[in-house]
Amino acid sequence: MSLPTFDPAGLEPRSATDELRERSPLARTPDGTWVVLGHAEALAVVEDAESFSSEVSRFLQVPNGLDGAEHAAMRAATDPFFGPEEMARLAPVLREVAGGLVEELLDGVGAAGTEIDAVAALGAVFAVRGQTAWLGWPAVLEPELLQWMSDNHEASRSGELERTREVAEHFDAIIRSVLAPRRAAEQDAPEDPTTALLRLRVPLPDPEVPGSTERALHEEEIVSILRNWTGGDLGSIALCTGVLLHALAHAPALADRVRDGSDEEATAIIDELLRIDDPFVSNRRVTTCPVSLAGHEIGAGERVLVHWTSANRDGRVFPDPEALDPAGNAERNLVYGAGPHVCPGRPLATLELLTLLKALLSAADVRPGETPGEREIAPVGGWAHVPVVLVPRG
Ligand code: HEM
Hints:
With 394 residues, the chain is α+β, with helices and mostly antiparallel strands. Helices cover 51% and strands 12% of the residues. The longest helix is centred in the middle third of the chain and has 31 residues, at 219-249.
């Protein structure tokens, strides 16, 4: 049986996949990449990291682009940065950041409210301020990081390798400007996750020290980790904010539940809204051996794209993909991935989104804006712009 062709150019990821997936859980792009659209198939791929390698880029990507024991060692060393203690330390810091931003947006606003773009004015600014507060980076970096986010976004949209490389190099320069003074300050460097990364020992042998079982991170590894944390955080938090605000502006009763409900209830609603409209569209793999998927034989060395947005709307698993069922669908929700590469930043992403929504909704009612907003198109998901009106609550 020949597979349908997946050509998402100019389409937003949901409409590019909804109808196609019901015909086949697997498709191929015109250049031969296998696109995994079904939920069961996406799980099968990401849980079999031996057959489906994450080493897809010629650039060092820690931990994203690593496999096997090296990947496991890097995850073991870096996952604690998102542990419960670290999140508890961060919670009041993020509350202050969110509260301050909401206050700025509502400053001098009367009963008629004010219209803002939830992606640019709320999500992107909060993502940058939350990120710099978490990592201990200077607040003066805010305009540069916001500009970088926008350049990075345009580069991903363009698909041009040269542009992507330039944007990545710019980001590396920002990171090195943060690392250099910390290295120079040695023991006097501020105690924050960035300094902790400089001092981190990973459970991997040091080739220079025979018999060793751990070593420090190399400069390129630190830069790569910070790039992946920041890349994971900034763009996705801004896009998630757009998706959430769009949904909540159109469902005031749901917004009430997020504002007044427990953190657990609000988090479950957030996760479920992101399942329905997942802006973190896809990740790549490459096969290491011949492998069978959904009845098709895939050779070794073939490119594979796991399409999370599609898998999260698979009618075989979510009979009505558009229906909101936070408790019922939680277990099969793939917004944060699965398998050994499952998102380590989930506790941080959850804390950020929850804190922002609670701060905003307790200060303002959110209504749809005058204009309908603009969807992103492949390879980016979610919304490019979400106009919403913020009406201060009495
Ligand atoms: C709402 C926001 C986020 C979403 C939807 C999201 C989603 C995902 C998904 C689906 C993966 C799996 C990738 C794969 O299988 O190849 C992943 C991996 C990853 N995420 Fe997130 N993420 C988010 C936020 C964050 C944040 C805040 C951070 C860190 C600050 C982060 C850091 C990472 C890293 C480092 C990986 C790679 C893990 C590995 O390869 O072992 N993410 N994320």
